[in-house]
Amino acid sequence: MAETPEVAFVVNPIAGMGGRVGLKGTDGVVEEAIRRGAEPVAPGRARAFLEALECEVRLLTAGGPMGEDVLRDLRIPYEVIYRPGTPTTAEDTREFCRRALRRGAGIVV
Question: DSSP assignment, residue 95?
Fold first, then answer.
């Protein structure tokens, strides 16, 4: 019997916020995006992905808004392998990915 594949599941909680309020992104301008009325869109997209997932996988994720929150809300089993700082940064994403790959995750989503 095949082993259940490990999938690294990570959410960039600020991804997609800048474009909706006329910015080219949110790198370095998250506060401006929020001031203009931007709201997080990535968690909703992550939720849609998880709800459509039809195969059995073992999910490795980062804590809080980088994956854990959505998985907990949907009551999907997961393992937190990294706890990001507050606010989250690009370095948090890189460190999570490094740890996931060391763990043998076959794919990062």
Answer: H
Complete DSSP assignment for 31-72:
HHHHHTT----HHHHHHHHHHH--S--EEEEESGGGBHHHHH
37's tokens: 């009325």
pTM of the model: 0.84
CB-CB contact of 19 with 40 (8 Å): no
84-107-51 Cα angle (round to 5): 80
Residue at 45: amino acid letter: R
Distance CA 1, CA 40 (A): 40
- Among 89, 81, 41, smallest CA distance to 58 is for 81
Look at residue 73 in the predicted model and tell me its pLDDT. 95
